[in-house]
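Recall that a protein's primary structure is simply its ordered list of amino acids. Everything else, from secondary elements to tertiary packing, is in principle encoded there. The following example makes that idea concrete.
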Amino acid sequence: MSFTKLQSQILEDKLIREFIAKQNSDGWIDEDFHSEKGIETAIRVLSEKGVLSEQFPIQKMLNELERREDTFDKGCLFNVGKILDEKGFGGSQLIRSTIFAYAGIENKDFIKEQIENALDKFKFILSVDKIQDITEEYKSKLIFKNEVKWPSIYDLRLLAFTKTWRSKENEKIITSSIGQLIKLSPISDILVLKGHQLIAPASFCMHDFYQDMNTFKDKDWMMWFHRMELLSRLGVVKHIEELKVQVDFLVNNLDENDGIFKKKLNHYYFTKWGTYTGLALEKDWRTEERRMCDLTFRSLLILYYSEIY
């Protein structure tokens, strides 16, 4: 199949067509930015399914996302996203940059700034011996102390999908930081306090980097696949024994089933695309074959990027 024909076929995907149909004349989608119907999810889905950034639908979305510098995050993020940016936990501006990274774009100043911020957050982890050192209680909730920086899932995604930061020094910092997150795991929910307002940072998949995979429920598997793919793309797996053990667990599962991931997993986290969830590239999981194709593909991505097999 030619490349042009493949791109045309990808654009016929039902979910892609639904997002394209929502675009206005400028290319924007007039929905809550940080929602399953908004621009964030649209670009994530289009990029995951293989639509290139220079393709007309996604290009128009990205052009508008860059142009709407101060207004792109209308919806649930409009206030809290700015607070999270201000407090050093990554909010609207981090998410905006991560969306460009999904599409393979990182050569813009606002993205470079967020990459530096992400590196600073991971570097901060190296100064933390225990979670109690950076948290305190407020109204029976655990909150971050002032001056703490902490990475979210978007920091992990941003670095996983970009290349320009990858000096030997930075790679050592990220490897050590992930190693420290493993030592600190499991990490409780920690909120950000602004005045009297409690805000939840984007901690999806960031609570436990070393779970017992034998105890996984279906939802745990989805979060593991997502997190491990990002960690593999970061290039840290081959340097961290606890991560290699997890990949070995995956490989054993594949070896026992002729290279196919056959485990019968079924949770909406896999198939419902949103800002956090979504993994399935097949149109649905109504057949066993489509489920196995998706999970085997994700397994192979982890093996490819982890560089240990």
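The chain has three domains: 1-75, 96-209, 213-306. Residues 288-306 form the longest helix (19 residues).
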